[in-house]
Structures are given as C-alpha cells and as structure tokens.
Amino acid sequence: MSERKKTNIILFSGDYDKVMAAYIIANGAAAYDHDVTIFHTFWGLNTLRKDEKLQPKKSFMEKMFAKMMPRGAEKMPLSKMQFLGMGPKMIKKVMKKHNAMPVSDLVDLAKEQDIKLLACTMTMDLLGLKKEELMDNIEYGGVAAYIADGEDGTINLFI
Amino acid sequence: MNIEKTLDAKGLACPMPVVRTKKTIDDIESGQILEVIATDAGSKSDITAWTKSSGHELVDMKEEDGVFYFYIKKA
C-alpha cells in the first residue's frame, strides 16, 4: 500500500460555523484514508472543553477567562449573524432540517475515525485551561508537534 | 451486476455519505460491489471523487428523482 497522505488543520477559531467547517473537512479527509491532525490553539481549544463545570485551581484572570469562554462547541457563537444568541439557535434548527450533524457529533465521529486531536499547551496556559477541563484521549503539544505532522502534509489549513 | 452490500445513505448530509461509504467498503472483499444510495446533491461529485482517489472503480451511477445510486467495485 502506498504511503498515507496527511491532512493537518490548525483550528484557531472558536466560532461554531468555523469549527464545523474544520471538523467536516477533517472527517472527510479521514474517509479518504488520510492521517488527520487537528491542532487546537487559542479559541479553537474551547472545542475540546468538557461540558461540565469544573473548578480547578485558577488565578483571578484565569477564572475570568473560564467564565467568558464556551464550554464545548455547542455553546459557541457564530462568526456572522450572532443576533445575541438567536443566530446559533436558528442555524441549529436549519441544520437539523437538513440532517447536518451537530459539531459535537462531528467531534465524536473524528475520534471514531482516529483523527488526532492535539491541544496547544502554550495557549492553554495563556487562557488558563487545565488538562482536566479538556476531553480525555487527546494529545498535547506545541509548534514542533504541528510542524512534524504539517511538513509532509498534503493538505494544510488554518481555520 | 452482483451487489454484495447496499448502503442506504438517503437523507444524510455532507460528510456522512463518504464517511459511511468508506466504512462500509471495509466490510466487503476486493472485487465485490457496494451499492450506495444517497440524496445529498453533493454526493454525486463526492462519491465519484472519493472512489477515484481511493483506487476503487465506479462501475455505474444513476440518478432517479433526486436519488443517486452508485455501484462501486472494491479494489
């Protein structure tokens, strides 16, 4: 068998629609038998956040960040047409009608397809996110981990 | 045509038809034929492109009233 191709996505954004695009591409690439890595940094890290309210020891600033950031993709705003929270509700309704998968399901599907979910530890520190707040069975790394996957990637995206 | 397995992907939206096709084709043997039925308009180019890239052969394809039928021979 020929060497497997690689798809690498840097997920920087924390908007529901952009995360959805990233995970659709990732799952599609996995179906193409690519080795897929999603490198979550900055606001994209919130995709990996657990839904439950955890209270690890944090500084005042970190607590503020934790309060303001969404716990998981389903709580994210849209990049356009947010309408004070009405936007996400409307798009989810339309998605249901068209049988599009919610982002949380796309994340589960990504795990099922052995997509590597990587969390950037440097930005985790900046945003005050602790490992216990993020999903289990993900990997942690920095720029070198991304470059290692990215340097021979067929598809490299920054979303 | 001897169809080994049928995948009903009707009503599923992108990226599911391709994801399911990939999963289902893993269950059949080389040379056998998988039938995929989908309604997603994008699946016409999606399944065609996927089949080509993954080395399988699209033996036949037809469209009836917005429903797509694909016949894929596993490589």
From TrEMBL, chain A:
InterPro entries: DsrE2-like (IPR032836), DsrEFH-like (IPR027396). It holds the Pfam family DrsE_2. It comes from the Bacteria. PANTHER family: CONSERVED WITHIN P. AEROPHILUM, PEROXIREDOXIN FAMILY PROTEIN. This is DsrE/DsrF/DrsH-like family protein. It comes from Allobacillus saliphilus.
UniProtKB/TrEMBL annotation, chain B:
CDD domains: SirA_YedF_YeeD (cd00291). Pfam families: TusA (PF01206). InterPro entries: TusA-like, TusA-like_sf. It comes from the Bacteria. Residues 7-31 form the UPF0033 domain. Belongs to the sulfur carrier protein TusA family. This is Sulfurtransferase TusA family protein.
